[in-house]
Design brief:
Elements: E1 10-12, H1 16-28, E2 35-37, H2 44-47, H3 50-53, E3 56-60, H4 69-82, H5 88-107, H6 111-119, E4 122-125, E5 128-131, E6 143-148, E7 151-154
Parallel strand pairs: 1-2, 2-3
Antiparallel strand pairs: 3-6, 4-5, 6-7
Helix pairs in contact: 5-6
């Protein structure tokens, strides 16, 4: 029972299959606060429900509104094999797999050498450039996307 409670936004973390009924329920109940969510909700299927979902912002591993030859080529190959369009996590996972495979090819099957190879890597993937900090984290900035009538749109300045 959230009616009558004052809040500025809702944060939802989970997969689209489980989060969508919650979001739709909030909207049916008349709760129109902005919803902040993880990239698992940044799918074409969720984008199709824009009129019902209202103000939805997700953090994504790359600009979901970007269209370039390599990304579109990957999308065509993925869709021909799976029958569905690749979501952002699939594209990101593809990049990570290519990054790790490249490190193994250069370092061999030695875990320490693979780790060293990864930490010093600079890699340009479908989602953009990968560069790692001294602690091993990817320094690429996440991208905030908002749901618009025509799909996902990047929020500039973040």
């Amino acid at each position: 029972q959230l009616q009558g409670i004052s809040f500025d936004a809702a944060v939802i973390w989970g997969r689209a299959e489980t989060a969508m009924p919650l979001i739709e329920g909030l909207r049916r109940a008349g709760i129109q606060v902005p919803i902040l969510a993880c990239s698992a909700l940044a799918t074409p299927e969720v984008a199709k429900k824009q009129p019902v979902l209202g103000n939805l912002t997700v953090v994504a591993p790359y600009d979901l509104s970007r269209h370039d030859f390599e990304l579109e080529n990957f999308q065509r190959r993925y869709e021909s094999r799976t029958g569905t369009r690749a979501g952002p996590l699939a594209v990101y996972s593809y990049d990570v797999a290519r990054l790790v495979i490249g490190a193994i090819e250069r370092a061999g099957l030695n875990r320490a050498l693979i780790r060293d190879e990864l930490s010093g890597s600079r890699f340009n993937g479908l989602t953009g450039p990968y560069r790692f900090s001294s602690l091993g984290g990817n320094e690429a900035d996440p991208v905030l996307m908002t749901l618009q009538k025509n799909g996902w749109s990047r929020i500039q300045g973040f």
